[in-house]
Design brief:
Layout: E1 5-10, H1 14-25, E2 30-36, H2 39-49, E3 53-57, H3 65-72, E4 80-85, H4 92-97, E5 101-104, H5 109-121, H6 128-138, E6 145-149, E7 152-156, E8 161-167, E9 170-175, E10 181-183, H7 187-192, E11 199-203, E12 206-209, E13 213-217, E14 222-227, E15 230-235, H8 238-246
Parallel strand pairs: 1-2, 1-3, 3-4, 4-5
Antiparallel strand pairs: 6-7, 8-9, 8-12, 9-10, 11-12, 13-14, 14-15
Helix pairs in contact: 2-3, 3-6
């Protein structure tokens, strides 16, 4: 008889949580103990249920998956961790280096089953305590972006930005929850700060946050950026949109 696996799913998107939980329950030997939308909820659920497996999104408002790993490394909790991300270029090198498992969104059922089988074959090798220090030593520091302005300096959490727009030698920062800001740096200089973050340049004048990309409109050559009730329609070039579609 297969070992019963006790799992927790952590993802800020409710649809993603529900889909993954459903796929896990299809296994028949997995129970999903909790579905959490941020790392605060996750810490409480882990303390309560002490799961075997933690399915963890990377980029979430209020704290990244890496921050949760750092917190867990200072506790007695020791789940195996499977990162779940939509960005195959984002931190995968660090995850592979630390021998953590990961799944790419949208989740393929065969990939999920292979991950579960690897865990069953030798679950002790995947335990957090054996891998956390290695992983945390490989990922970059998650610092705020820093941009010069006419009257000083602004520090920005990357997750707050929906997209960047070139305006001559300046750049307009379009936010999800506050008014736009203009910084005294070119879009090229902005792009140099975004290495390893989920942003993509869709034209000479626009860089979008992939976290909030909801649709690509080939006919109108636009990307629809949406978070909560705020929607942006950003013009791209056909070549860049084709690259984005293939990612």
């Amino acid at each position: 008889m297969k070992k019963l696996i006790r799992a927790i799913v952590v993802d800020d998107e409710s649809n993603s949580r529900d889909i993954l939980a459903h796929l896990l329950m299809l296994d028949g030997n997995i129970t999903v103990l909790s579905k959490c939308q941020n790392i605060v909820e996750a810490m409480d659920a882990i303390a309560e249920f002490k799961p075997d497996l933690l399915f963890l999104d990377i980029e979430m408002p209020g704290g990244s998956g890496f921050e949760l790993i750092e917190r867990l490394s200072k506790t007695d909790f020791n789940p195996a961790v499977v990162f779940v991300t939509a960005y195959n270029q984002y931190a995968i090198k660090a995850i592979k280096y630390a021998a953590f498992d990961y799944l790419l969104k949208p989740i393929d059922l065969d990939d999920l089953n292979q991950t579960l089988q690897r865990y069953r074959d030798d679950f002790d090798k995947h335990r957090l305590k054996q891998k956390a220090d290695t992983l945390l030593g490989q990922i970059p520091d998650f610092q705020k972006l820093k941009f010069n302005m006419r009257n000083g300096v602004i520090f920005i959490d990357p997750e707050d930005i929906a997209w960047f727009e070139a305006s001559g030698s300046y750049t307009i920062l379009h936010f999800q929850s506050r008014k736009d800001e203009i910084v005294s740096v070119s879009l090229k200089d902005v792009e140099s700060q975004l290495d390893g973050l989920p942003f993509f340049r869709i034209s000479r004048s626009a860089i979008i946050n992939l976290k909030y990309l909801s649709r690509i409109d080939r006919r109108n050559k636009t990307c629809i950026i949406q978070k909560s009730d705020k929607i942006f329609e950003v013009q791209g070039t056909p070549a860049q949109l084709r690259i984005l579609e293939s990612k």
